[in-house]
Amino acid sequence: MWVCVSNDFELRNVLVKILNSAPNPTKENFNNFETEQLQNRLRNTLEDKRFLLVLDDVWNEDRTRWDELKEIIDIGVEGCKILVTTRSHLTATMMCTKSSNSYLLERLSDEDSFSLFVKTAFKEGKEERYPQLLEIGKEIVNKCGGLPLAVKTLASSLFSVVDKTKWESMRDNKIWNLPQKEKDILPALEISYNQLPSHLKPCFVCFSLFSEGSEFSSFYLAKLWEALGFLPQPNENETMDDVAIQFLHELWSRSFLTDFTELSHGYSFKLHDLVHDLAMYAAKGEFQTI
Description:
- The chain has helices at residues 11-21, 35-46, 63-73, 89-95, 110-121, 131-143, 148-157, 164-171, 186-194, 201-205, 218-227, 240-253, 273-282; strands at residues 2-6, 52-58, 81-86, 216-217, 258-263, 266-270.
- The protein has 3 domains: 2-95; 110-194; 201-282, Winged helix-like DNA-binding domain superfamily/Winged helix DNA-binding domain (Arc Repressor Mutant, subunit A, Orthogonal Bundle), CATH 1.10.10.10.
- The strands form 2 sheets. Strands 1-2-3 form a 3-stranded parallel β-sheet.
- Helix 6 (131-143) runs parallel beside helix 8, helix 9 crosses helix 13 (273-282) and helix 11 packs across helix 12 (240-253).
- It contains 13 helices and 6 strands.
- It is mainly alpha-helical and 290 residues long.
């Protein structure tokens, strides 16, 4: 079971997310259940079963809330595991038990960062034709501080771009000089956002309207973008859905979208939580959710 927790560690909401992530053959809707009903249903679901539960991107630093949840899910058989990911050292310390360990994920080495950059920015085997771009690329990679998402997003925006001035513009961008927290990824992502074509920027900002960890469908996004007037008139033999899917492919090719999956009626996809942070940042003054 994989649950994107983010800032919402309210017990009832977390229980709903866990149950929605567990096998649910009858497609039961848990949104209207009371907290006690959810607790009982989850206990029944997990009882006598070995499970792996991933609580992704946790920010909760309240031990009481964690103890409440742990008491409910601590009923499986031997071998059950709970894996927590967090960007908060305090959260990691608080959620650790005597029998568990915390692992601090190190940043990529300079060598691995540059390898990822080259694979993403060039077609395979083509990088040797552009030694000058490779040298500029090394300088860009150094500014990413070993953060793979930053490396991949910037490299994606330079894919098939052989204009030296555009590479230098990214390297010399003033955003790098802004005060930032340790390992802050926003400057790198903001540069990629600023390099988006003008028709994609308002479409991307729309993702700020949804909660972190949401799964999107191309059908719904097409209707939203059309209603907001963000889609141009389609060409002959095209529909608005076709235009929206073209826009989504462009965002995906720039590494703004993940888990991009083709369905019978379109596509489904997600946003990395840091990319969602970027959408929230870019949406200031444009959208507000209450």
